[in-house]
Structure formats: structure tokens, C-alpha cells
Amino acid sequence: MTENIKKNWREKIHEIIYEADTPAGKLFDVVLLILIILSIIFVMMESVKGLSEKMYDFLLYAEWIITIFFTIEYIARVISIKKATSYIFSFYGIIDLLSTIPLYLSFFILGSNALLTVRALRLLRVFRILKITRYIGEANKLTRALKDSRPKILVFLFAVLVLCIIMGTLMYIVEGEESGFKNIPVSVYWCIVTLTTVGFGDIAPVTPLGQLIAAIIMIMGYGIIAVPTGIVSAEYAANKKTIPLRNNTQVCSNCNEDKHQNDAKYCHNCGYTLFNE
Amino acid sequence: MTENIKKNWREKIHEIIYEADTPAGKLFDVVLLILIILSIIFVMMESVKGLSEKMYDFLLYAEWIITIFFTIEYIARVISIKKATSYIFSFYGIIDLLSTIPLYLSFFILGSNALLTVRALRLLRVFRILKITRYIGEANKLTRALKDSRPKILVFLFAVLVLCIIMGTLMYIVEGEESGFKNIPVSVYWCIVTLTTVGFGDIAPVTPLGQLIAAIIMIMGYGIIAVPTGIVSAEYAANKKTIPLRNNTQVCSNCNEDKHQNDAKYCHNCGYTLFNE
Amino acid sequence: MTENIKKNWREKIHEIIYEADTPAGKLFDVVLLILIILSIIFVMMESVKGLSEKMYDFLLYAEWIITIFFTIEYIARVISIKKATSYIFSFYGIIDLLSTIPLYLSFFILGSNALLTVRALRLLRVFRILKITRYIGEANKLTRALKDSRPKILVFLFAVLVLCIIMGTLMYIVEGEESGFKNIPVSVYWCIVTLTTVGFGDIAPVTPLGQLIAAIIMIMGYGIIAVPTGIVSAEYAANKKTIPLRNNTQVCSNCNEDKHQNDAKYCHNCGYTLFNE
Amino acid sequence: MTENIKKNWREKIHEIIYEADTPAGKLFDVVLLILIILSIIFVMMESVKGLSEKMYDFLLYAEWIITIFFTIEYIARVISIKKATSYIFSFYGIIDLLSTIPLYLSFFILGSNALLTVRALRLLRVFRILKITRYIGEANKLTRALKDSRPKILVFLFAVLVLCIIMGTLMYIVEGEESGFKNIPVSVYWCIVTLTTVGFGDIAPVTPLGQLIAAIIMIMGYGIIAVPTGIVSAEYAANKKTIPLRNNTQVCSNCNEDKHQNDAKYCHNCGYTLFNE
């Protein structure tokens, strides 16, 4: 009997925390989202000189309240799921842990609470909360197009890197230290800055030959940018119609699997019952 | 009888102001366009030191003449339409109002007439005036491709923002205040400047680790730019043939609805007669 | 008889100068190309301090020799064609004239010979000389894709310009003169620099609000760049297979029309005989 | 008999060095890859002041050990292949030679060992070592899309160059030497920096007319970037399905030909037996 009640109690927490189908679940998610955003704003404000001194007490208390809430939420997430490890070692599990630890660490290590902005990653939860069929579908399509393009993009980035090492060394030899190209790593850095068309201008070639090579690098960068764009375009156009939408926010309380079919009654991963009240 | 004459008088003004099919309507639109462009040039000239002192009197009078014309035009637009509110609260209605108010406000608030450049938005009227089938069709296609891509672009921009918050904080921790990364918001700003490949160079990393992270951000930015391009490309290619052109410049004098079929005789929104003389 | 000989003489010059099918015509074109490139290099060298003083005499003579050759060539082009006006007022006719005049003008106006680099435009003749089927075909395809995209690109650029005027004025109001935004035209210029992701960094926002707006402009620019790319991509993909290649270098000696079919015997414009020896 | 043994001995070396199908061949390739990467890191470290002084002895010995290994490997490659010239004059043959010579040269010429980073090109061997079907396929597709786009890209780059020469000269005339546009080549360099949206900011226009022209160049650059992207997109999409994958790492020991079919037993180039043990 007690076992049964405990199970129900755990299932209810699971429903509130992990899902967004019930009013309580939705409310929880909205509160969580607001706290995440507030927390990021507070960490940012803390880094601003002048502002942080004026509002020192407020920011300190606010940080602690939010962190304690996040800690409770983390514990609740761990105990409300059957296989705790499937949550703890998941992407969100690690992010959730990392978003609470830094403040506790700040007792021992100075400046570690700047790491609190890792909480920004928690913002990704927003997509589940909004639960707008369209938006989740779009994110899925985007993710899949990117995933399909990954090997090509890696090959491309590798080629760009080799090119930057070669051209960077060449610029180091041509321009020398007095122009700001003080060693090969810095020259390679400059070459990446130039090839990607960022162009800070803190380092710039001054010799005619250096400027000629720089011009060649720029025109190459200008032409090369077409490659990833072409790849993603083609992949995206090919994927456009073939992806079935899955926008069910149900999460299996046993194995933490999500992305169930809209009308799923059992988890497609472990067969456990889904709670579609 | 008087009612009838008044109605005709209002309909004539409506035809001149809102439409571009008759010679009078075309002339009005061209005069309006020239005044809008002149007005923007005058506001710009006013802001240029030296020039504004030499031409002070001329600019002052010119501004007032144009503003009075715009005010009369605004009133004429309001009274010549049946449902005045449908114009007043429309996009152009608000722009038209905002383009007259600042100068009157300049009696009370210093510098408010710089806001007059909001008139630039009125330039968008040019598309209706030119009434070139092709151009309106192109604008429609572009607008529709952008509208269809909106959810994807929003998801994309959101991901970029989260990335910039994370990387910006990282750079703040790595580089510190002496390199110009004086607080997290500034670091996030720098990260946006770098990821979008703008690269002002007013802030630039100086430590080897900072330059390594910057290089990673740049290469990510270089690869990420492929995503919106791919999306718009695919949407645009998909829409290319499916959009019917609508280039009728008729505007219903009752409900202010435009975008009627070329051979429409009655407003498709309220059933009011369109004046196709 | 004399008339006939003269006609033949004119036709021969026409063949050598305007066409690239015969050995003499090819040789002429190659010599012309080399002279154009040399001429550009000499004008560039002249602008380099130190270099120009050392080589003053050489550069002066070289310039004059090339200019006299170009002048003779221009006269030969005019007299060897039936309807001289069809050449004189064509694109190449004007370029050819402009590439000779500046040096003669340099007797009267100082520095006018810097305009000699207009000769660079003559380099476009290279495509006819190379007469590589593939390259001409590619250039035609590119030109046609760009021509088809023109109305869209114009609408797009107009929208970008209106956006830059609005945002530039906003930045002028927010940042003010002490940050380098000294008047509205400069602010609009800065906005174009930022939106196109060039980012010189000579002017950069310093206030938090200014940096926020700048960040928005950059992200807009980053997203907006997708639009022209998408347009050209789609147009280019659509045109890819539908363009017949025309790589005949024959030019009608009567009306100066080119782009004849490969097996054309008569000018498709005026019916005059083409000389396909 | 001895002839036979020698042949077997040469074939074994060939198998280890040129192929990646056997455990010994794989091990050799991995060791080679690690040495290449280490060698590049050492050359980079050598260029960093302070670091190079502290670790002088270590870096010197490391460089020599790696170079001697590369030299032995080069000799082994030459003697283990039937037609030595087919390797010596191939792309990798030249790279392999260039990656050993600079250190020997450093006895005679100061600073020549900076050229050792040419070894980075050897990294391209990694694709053969990894032997991941997918990655090689992707690299082939990319290479082919780029190869197909080459004539178009050349035409495009040529047009960009002519544009930069014209606009650069114009800026030289408009801005003059006091703004940093000290001669035409520098102005052309600046124009390339601007058109490719790099924008270092070491040179920037200061006169209103110069800024207007710069704005036009930027917007052109912003629009022009669409062209190579569109080309590569279209080519890539067209090629997507038509390329058969070839991921056999076998290299003919007679003629050095690679890219054999997966089930090839004889070299498709010279008919020599392939060793598919």
C-alpha cells in the first residue's frame, strides 16, 4: 500500500517536472524558465563594475535563492525517475548539475560563480515548454540537416585549418615580428580572423607582399564560405519533406526517453506505460 | 443632394490620395515621394555641423513647409476614408502620424526632430507608386519566403544568442578586464560582433587561450552562417512558382483593404464598390 | 574597282580587330591584352612614391607608347566598321575612348592620368580572346542569373537602405557625437559598415544601449545576407539547363552585332554577310 | 630466387607504407600522423619567443629525430615502388620531399626551417588513414562540386578583381594619401578588404564622398557574395546523387594509381596485380 502511494507520489513529481501537458507541469516550466533568465541577468549584472557594488546584497541573496531552488529541482529530478543514472548522465542532467555547483564552489575558489552562465544552456528547455508544434518541428529539421551535413562540414573545417596553418606560416615569414605577426600561432590566428572575413584589424599586414598574400587569403575566404552554405542548402532542401513531426512532450518515467509518437501509450524504448491523463 | 456631393468629394480625395491609377493620383504620389526624400535629406543635413549653421534658415523653413504638407495629407487621409480607425491604426497610419509629430514636439523637447527620419519608412510607399507589376510581385515573393522561414530563423537566432552568452562569459573569464572584456554583457557583445564576422577590433583577445577560443568562435560563425542561407534558399525555391501576382493599386475607400485581384469590382473584404473608372 | 579593294582592306582590318578566328586576329588580341595589362601595371607603379621617381622616364615613355597604340586602334575600329556610331556609342566604344583621353588631358589637368585605370575595364575583352566555349558559356549563365535576379536584388537593397537610414539615425541619437557618430550621414555609413559585416572599427559604439542596438543590427545583417544568396541560388539552379551556348566570336562588320549562332552565315540583326573564311 | 625474395620484401614495404588495410599498415599510418602533428607543433613552439629559448635543446633534438624519420620514410617510398618517378613527381611526393629539406637547408640559410610547416599539407593523408567510407565519399563529393564550379568561380573572381582595380583607383583619387590610401596598389588592397567584408580598419575613408563610395562597395560585396554561394549550391545539389563512392585504400605498387573499385583485383590503370591479402 505505502509502496503504491509512494509510487504515485513519485509519478506526480515526474509528471510536473518532466512534462508540460498538465496545468501544474506548465506552471512549473514557466517558473523554471523565468528563474533561469533572471539567474543569467543577475550573473551578468554582478560582472558590471559599479552596478555590482550598489546592488551587492540584492544580487547575493537572489543568487542563493535561485541556486537553492535549482538544487531542490535537481534532487527532485533524480528521485522522481526510475533509473536515476539515465537522467544524471544525460545532456540536461549534466547541465543541471553544472548550473548549481559553481555558487557552492565560490566558498572555496574565487570567481568560480562566473561559470553560472552555464545556466544559459538550460534555456534550451524553452523549446519543450513552448510546445508549439511548429517550432519543435523546425528545430528537429534544423538539427537533422546539420547532423546530416556534419561529416562534410568536418572535412571542410579540417581543410580550412590546414590552409590557415600554411598561410599563417607564410605570413609570419613575409611580415615578421615588427608587423604584429610575432610568432606562428599568432599568424595562424590572424589567418583564421581574415579567412572567416571577421577582420579585427589589431594585426594587419604592412609590407606590399604581405598585403598581396592577405588579399589572396581574403578572396579565398570569400569563395570558400560558399561551400558550407551550399552543403547545408542542399541537405536542407533534400530533408524538407521527409521528416515526421514529433511534438509529444511525454517523457518516460522509467528510462527518460522522449520523442514519443503523439498517440503513444507505451514507451517505445522500454515498454513502460506513459501517463497520458 | 448635399450628402451626395460630399460623398463624391470624399471619394475623389480618396482616389487621389490612396490610389495610383488616375493621372491626378499618380501626380500626387510622385509629389509625395519627392517631399519624403527631400525631408530625409534636410534632416540629415541638419545634423551635419557647419552645414547646418550656414543653411539654418533654409532648413528651418523647408522642414516646416514639408511638415505642414504632411499634416494636411494626414488629415485628408483620415477624413476621406469611411472607417477612419482602419487607417489610423494601420502600419502606414502610425508611420504617417509619427512623421509629422516630432517637429511639433521640437518646441518642447530639444533634439526630438532627429526622429523625423522615421519618415524614411514612408519611402516604402514607393513600391505602390512605381506600380511595376514585376517589382510588387518580387516584393511579395520575398516577403512570403521570409514569413515562411520565420519560425526557423527564430529558432536559429535563439540558438545563436545562447551560444553567444556562453562563449562571451568564457571569454570574460579567460581574457579579463585588462584586455577590454570589462564585464559579461560587453563580452557577449564582443562575441556577437565576432560570430557575425563583423569584427570591429575595438576589443580583441590578447592571451593565447583567448585567441584560441576566438578562433573557434569565428570558425563556428563562418559555418553557422550557412544555416539561415540554406533555409531561405530552400523556402524561396519552393515558393518560386506558386505565388499569384497581385498588383492592383486599388484601395477600398470603406475598409482600407488593398491587394485586390486585378479585375476586382468589389472589395473582397467588405463588399464595398471599388472605383475602377 | 578601287571601291572593291578599299572594301576588302576595310574588311580585313575588321576581321583582325573585331574577331578572333584567324591567326592574325588572335595575335592582335593577345598583343592588345598584354598592352592593357602592362598599361594598368604602369599606372599603378606611377602612384607608388619612390618607385615613380626612380623610373620616371621609363614610365612616361611607356605610357605614351601604349596610349598612341590605343589611339591608333580606336581610329582603326571606327573606320573599319560600316556604321561607326554603333561602335562609338557601345559599351566598349566608350571604354576604349576613355582609356586614351586621360593622358592627353594630363597636359591640361594635373592628376587626370590616374583615370587611366579605366583601362582595366578593357580587360573584359579577355573573355572573347580566350574563346573557350566553357568560359563564355559560364559568363553568359552568370550574367543571365544576375539579370533575372535584378528586380529582387533592387527591392532587397532598397529595403536595406531604408533600414540603414532608420538604424543610423537611432544610433546617432543614442551614441551622440563623442563616440564618433558625429552626424546622421556618418551614422548611416557606420550602419552600412556594420550590417554588411565589414566592421572597420574606426567608429564603434561605447554606451551599453548603443552596443545593444549594434548587436541587433549585426544579427539582422547576419540573417539578411541569406536573402540575396537564396535568390541567386534559386535563379541559378532554375537557369542551369535552359541556356543555349553561343560562343561564336564573329562580329557583324555592318552593325557590330555579336552573339551569332555557331553556324550563322548572315547577321541575324541586319542580314549582312558574316565572313566565316 | 634472390630476385623473388627482394620482390617480396619490396612488396611488403609497399603494403605497409602505401596501404592501410593490414594492422602493420594501419600502425605505420597512425605513427606517421602523430609525428606530422608533433612536428607542426614543434615548429610553432620554436617561433614563440621565450618558449623557444627555454626548450631550445628539446626542440632541436625533436626536429632532427622527426626529420630523419621522414627522410627514411621518403627513401622507403621511393625504393618500394616500381616506377619511382610516378611517386616523386606526384603531389604527395613533392610535399614529402619539401617536408624534409628545410631542416637540412637550415645549416646554410637562416630561418628556412620555418618552411617546415609545409608538413601541414601531409595532414591530408589523414583521410586515407581514417578510411571511413563516409568521410572519403564526402571529400570526393566536395572536391568534385568545387572542380565543376571552377570555371564559374574563375570568371567570378576575375570580375571581382577588375571591379577592385577600378574602385581602388577611384578611392585613391577621392581620398588621397593623407587618409592612408597612399598609392593605387594599397587602395586596391583596401578595396579587396572591404568587398570581401573583412574590414580590418587600418585604412578607412574619412571624406564624405569616400565614405559614400565605400558604402557602395560594401553593399556590392554583400550582394556579390551570393554568386559563388549560389553556384556551389546548385552544382552540389546536382552532383549529390550521381557520385559512386570509392573508398578502397589499395595503391598499385607498379604505377602508384589509387581510387580502385572496392573489389578490384588488378590495377585499372596498368593491369598490375593488387595485393588484397
From TrEMBL, chains A, B, C, D:
TM helices/strands, residue ranges: 27-46, 58-76, 88-110, 153-174, 186-206, 212-238
Q: Name one Pfam family in it.
A: Ion_trans
The terms under GO molecular function for this entry are: voltage-gated potassium channel activity
Which membrane topology term applies here?
Multi-pass membrane protein
Keyword terms, alphabetized:
Ion channel, Ion transport, Membrane, Potassium, Potassium channel, Potassium transport, Transmembrane, Transmembrane helix, Transport, Voltage-gated channel
Q: Which InterPro entries match?
A: Ion_trans_dom, VG_K_chnl, Volt_channel_dom_sf
- In its UniProt record, which GO terms are filed under biological process? action potential
* Subcellular localization: Membrane
**Entry's Gene Ontology cellular component terms:** voltage-gated potassium channel complex
Gene3D superfamilies on file = 1.10.287.70, Voltage-gated potassium channels. Chain C
Q: Which residues form the Ion transport domain?
A: 26-239
What protein am I looking at?
A: Voltage-gated potassium channel
> From which organism does this entry originate?
Aquimarina intermedia
Starting at the broadest rank, the lineage of the source organism is:
Bacteria, Pseudomonadati, Bacteroidota, Flavobacteriia, Flavobacteriales
